[in-house]
Amino acid sequence: MDPITPGPEEHGQALSRRPPRESLTSDFGQSAPAVARTAQIVAGDFLLTVNPVDGSEIEPCPPHQRPERPRKRTPAERAETERAARPPVPPGPALPTLSLLERQDERERLVRLLARGRSVRLTGPGGSGRTALLDLVAEDCVDLAPDGVVRLTGFHRTAADLLHDLFHAVHDAPAYRPGQDELVALVGEVGAVVVVDDLEFGGAALDELLDATPECAFLFAATPDVPGPAAGSEVEEVFLGGLDRAAGVEILERAVGRVLTEEEANWAGDLWFESEGLPLRFVQAGALLRQRDQLRASTGAVDECGVFEDLRPQAEQEFDADEGDQVALPSLGEAAAPAPLLAARLSASARATLRLAVALGGEVPHQAHLPALVGDTHADAALGELASCGLVSAVGSRYRLAAGVQAQLEAAGYDADAPAEARTAAEHYAWWAGHPSVTPERVCAEADAVLAALTVVVPATEPAAEGEESVAVRLARTAAPAFAAGLHWSAWERSLRSGTEASRLSGDVAEQVYFHHELGVLALCCGQLDRARAELEASGGLRGALADKRGAVAGRRALALVADLSGEAPGTAAMAGDEVPDARHEESAAPPGGVPAARTAPFGPAAEPLITRQAPAAATGGGIRRLARRNLVAAGSGALLVAVLGTVVTLGMTSEQNADRNPAGTVDVNPSVSQDVEDGDPGTGPKKDHDGDAGPGTVSSSPTNPGPDGTYGTSDDPAPPAESSGPSSRPSATKGTDGGGTTPTPTRSTHRPGSPTPTPTGSTPSSSPPASSSAPGSPSPSASPSSSPGTSTSASGPASGAPTASSGVASAPAAGGPDVVA
Description:
822 residues; Rossmann fold; Arc Repressor Mutant, subunit A; five-stranded parallel sheet; four-stranded mixed sheet; 26 helices
């Protein structure tokens, strides 16, 4: 093609006179949409492929993709992991490090108990200094256990979550989530001092955690409202109370960097009585005194110079006293609930961050998100202001509003725009979580803020207009795959359930399909088969209503895996006659006579082929479904090939045995086979012993191809002619040597499992009754019990004296020849 005159296939530039863009300038054009990120995870015995577009796929993990036994981290790697799990240092001036006061006795007692291998539960109210005490005890126990000290957070975590967190903290196992049995075996070998802050469960769940980790000593920290250990649990209880008055005064003096005046000391005494000596209240009170000193200094500077008075913050002007540079102490009520007063003296970005945190239920977003959420490029410094005032506290690797601050700010009206603030956060996180540069680990680190935004925006979801998407659905859709790939499965489940509810409220059925499918895959990974089946069937039903083929293959495979793990026969769930609503024109239908379906085990070799057939609609249950059509087509082709080969072999054997015989005579449609093994003469009848029983060489034929009504035979097969005037191509019958009835020339037939086994004429069954009895008034069954009802069993018709077959059993010849299944 001429490069100067571009053709129509060159990016649609045939109708344009402008030359195509050069390679350098084309790099600045609109780039192609980013490819959806997929991730593969080995979850127990399954290989999970997280697909954010069509739905995750799950299959038995191939042996070559199973990871080796996870190795334990080295001390240097454990230190790096612990450092990464700590909350980030807020930007701004370094905060003063306050030493722990009046906690030495509790500190020494906790270390002694942990050194003896005992587990301890430290109980104290919010703001009592539990986290600070845990940090000191963890430093003292570094060398007590072979696997060191492991710091975990119990905030919004279950016992199963903590077991997985402990496993990944000690072992190096990326993209691997062990099954329950393997998990218990691996964590049972961990010997460490495990420090768990903000525990939220007790009782049987706590015993389950302790039983799975016999070589670990735990130090739990919880509030009094958390359920305690079980009655027989060997967990020591240590209660953490408040400080005395002298310790409170010392905290205030360290906060302001000077000795308190007599007025301030009396004010501190009243505060100690009101706050019951909680250290957090004195930290916040120290921030109030520090702000008071700053106000006094700024007021004096303005009075002396008289410049920039118009630029002073409004908060500073409100707190000026009438007498010169004197600023009054806060009242006792303001000191007991200091959050509104502290916030009023902070920057605008810090107050906006507080409003956002109140809207998110106390969750403070990471400092890197604050500039985008607040709208200020320097908003990341707001976290340092809040931490210095004691308004936020560390929880795991992030920050939350400190104890009691949420209620105080709500009383001050900081929740007035909570829905709008949460929606802004949801839109931001929906864009950020789906960005190609954001790793699943970073999304998991921000999981609590993302889920908090979902919790607020989901109930407010309304039916979306055509072409629009709900922000709650979009956030759940982008965050859920990241949680799955990052192995934060509790957050994965919460986001999927929020997305299911949001898609239902918005009327987005297509997204409901995705969320139900993902919930089914998650339940399958966790071993909840009934729940997995219900979710996958709901997804398939919604997909059928939409005639949507996206993810249909993954859904069918997951359902087949559920059926296999449940012990169901493969395909029984798919043969009730209900169609699978997907791409019928792309795959052929199943053959009506049934096909051999190979049963595949998830963790071993394939089981024996199982012959299945279409059951009548009246005899099948409502929960049965149709097999995947591609499996039926493949199995049907194999069955047809076997039948054709068997027919060819039978015709060859028949032509060789009847080469020297007269082809005239009576011919049965599907004769039974009687062969004297000792004599080797296929034309003689069965050899009998002195009791009249058939010899061991007797071979019985059986009905072959099942008909559409479930019986073996069909009325649509062509009947043989009543008389034969010429040589017949069918095997002829000969007289037996014992003078019994007519014995047909033997043909080869394979008995189908589950079908009745008729007995040839002249022989007596030795172990089983006849397949069917004769109708009243009719002769005894002939050697051809598989003949069609009303069809003559000989070439000469009923006048030849040959008995007819009973009407209960029938057989159909295949294409003019004997119906043989090999």
